[in-house]
Design goal:
The complex is a heterodimer.
Chain A: H1 3-17, H2 21-40, H3 44-65, H4 72-77, H5 79-84, H6 90-119, H7 124-151, H8 158-185, H9 191-220
Helix pairs in contact in A: 1-6, 2-3, 2-6, 3-6, 3-7, 3-8, 6-7, 6-9, 7-8, 7-9, 8-9
Chain B: E1 11-20, E2 23-33, E3 38-42, H1 49-56, E4 64-69, E5 72-73, H2 78-83, E6 85-88, H3 100-109, H4 118-124, H5 140-153, E7 158-162, H6 170-185, E8 189-193, E9 204-207
Parallel strand pairs in B: 3-8, 3-9, 6-7, 7-8
Antiparallel strand pairs in B: 1-2, 1-4, 4-5
Helix pairs in contact in B: 3-5, 4-5
The chains are: A mainly alpha, B alpha/beta.
Chain lengths: 221, 223
């Protein structure tokens, strides 16, 4: 087994065993979406208009909430030193960790999203666009989040600081993700939005690990 | 020089200086570590023992100076150098949710080698009976043993040990010393920071105080 696969498997295993790690993000996601109908009232028409945006914002916040588990524990227990000395470059370790983070956060969010789409009254086509958009966009959330998680290692309130760093970077994902559903409702083509979402994730795949690994090297010092 | 002449194959550090923040920890440091050698780092708290070990582990960059192994600068092939060293620092890199064997298998596998020797390594440090325990059940000494078991689970020519006997009981210390002597007999090298007199044969001592910069505080510190 390659070191990359080993690291990926350990991260997934840790997320499952440290119960609540996955549940926390998903629970937050569901609860945040459920709060909106209570706040803006149950008119189906209003909810349908803002539904996709609500689900996307909740997904963004849920992803931010789970970022601290990417590197903080390894930084605190000395594991980061050993990762830096392992047979793979630190950039590769970041990719493996992001892949595991996506598999335990972004992927479950995307799978759960049709249910929440129903809740806010989206039609079948909009729900499909929402789920596909989340599938394409959430890898970027994990990858960009890794930069913030690495930069804030050793900070006093890493959670707050990393959300301040990363939420502006998430804006394109939010705009094109919610835009895909809106374009679908308006009868236009959602395809360009989805393509841009995928492009954003693909662009983050080589670039974000380089930045995150550089920040991790600073944290080793 | 430190009183030792360097030969072919030696690990040689020359003119090393290291700065942590604004503070120069040591400068002009020389040391030579031949095959089978054991170099004990001594010095007061804060004299730079851990810093020197992290420097040799390539986790820190030196302010000045070079480290070369067999005449090759370690920066020239960092990956090859890292594959030849084990670093056991103050922290044990043990996750509470993973089992003892899982932890050792993971860290050994991360070095890109076969992981067949994991059970033997656990036995070397007396952990075979608790190999399936989750690490959250371990005491500080047992976690230390698990960290030290990484040394024997995958071979590496250079061991960098930072206070390896901390939290170890007498039995653990005996096992560590036996492992170090076996490692040295096979031509391995050990560099170790320690405050304890360990019954190791034929060791060299590097006193970090000898390389302390002239002025400890080069500027007025205003908090």
């Amino acid at each position: 087994m390659t070191p990359y696969l080993r690291l990926f498997r350990r991260e997934v295993r840790l997320a499952f065993r440290q119960g609540g790690e996955i549940g926390l993000a998903l629970g937050f996601f569901v609860l945040a979406v459920v709060l909106f109908p209570l706040g803006v009232g149950p008119e189906a028409e209003i909810l349908r208009r803002i539904g996709a945006g609500i689900v996307w914002v909740a997904a963004l916040l849920a992803a931010v909430l789970s970022l601290d588990r990417l590197f903080a524990a390894d930084h605190a227990d000395g594991g980061l030193d050993l990762l830096a000395l392992s047979a793979m470059p630190l950039e590769g370790a970041v990719v493996a960790k992001c892949a595991a983070h996506w598999a335990t956060t972004g992927l479950p969010l995307a799978i759960l999203s049709p249910l929440l789409g129903l809740l806010v009254g989206l039609d079948a086509r909009s729900i499909a666009l929402l789920a596909v958009g989340l599938l394409l966009g959430t890898p970027a959330l994990s990858l960009l989040g890794a930069i913030a998680a690495a930069l804030t290692l050793g900070a006093r309130r890493p959670g707050v600081l990393s959300s301040l760093i990363v939420l502006p970077l998430y804006l394109p994902v939010l705009i094109f993700g919610a835009g895909a559903v809106e374009a679908g409702i308006a009868g236009g083509g959602a395809r360009p939005h989805l393509l841009l979402l995928g492009a954003f994730s693909l662009g983050a795949l080589p670039l974000a690990p380089i930045a995150a690994a550089a920040a991790l090297r600073q944290a080793l010092d | 020089m430190n009183g030792f002449a360097a030969n072919d194959g030696d690990l040689v550090a020359e003119g090393l200086a290291c700065r942590r923040g604004e503070r120069l920890v040591f400068s002009g440091l020389h040391c030579v570590l031949p095959a089978g050698g054991a170099l004990l780092l001594t010095g007061a708290n804060g004299s730079g023992k851990s810093t020197l070990l992290r420097l040799l582990a390539t986790l820190l960059a030196p302010e000045a100076g070079t480290i070369a192994w067999d005449g090759v600068r370690i920066g020239d092939d960092l990956a090859a150098y890292r594959a030849r060293l084990h670093y056991v620092g103050h922290l044990d890199a043990v996750k509470p949710a993973l089992a003892v064997r899982e932890t050792l298998t993971f860290w050994t596998g991360l070095r890109g080698v076969q992981v067949s020797s994991v059970d033997a390594a656990l036995a070397t440090f007396g952990l075979d009976a608790i190999a399936d325990w989750p690490c959250r059940w371990l005491s500080a000494g047992q976690k230390r043993r698990l960290a030290l078991a990484r040394l024997v689970a995958a071979p590496a020519a250079l061991w960098l040990l930072d206070e390896p006997t901390a939290a170890l009981d007498a039995d653990g210390e005996r096992r560590l010393i036996a492992s170090i002597e076996a490692h040295r007999a096979a031509g391995g090298r050990v560099m170790m920071a320690t405050h304890q007199a360990l019954p190791l044969a034929d060791t060299q001592v590097l006193a970090l105080e000898d390389f302390a910069p002239a002025t400890a505080v080069p500027f007025a510190f205003t908090p």
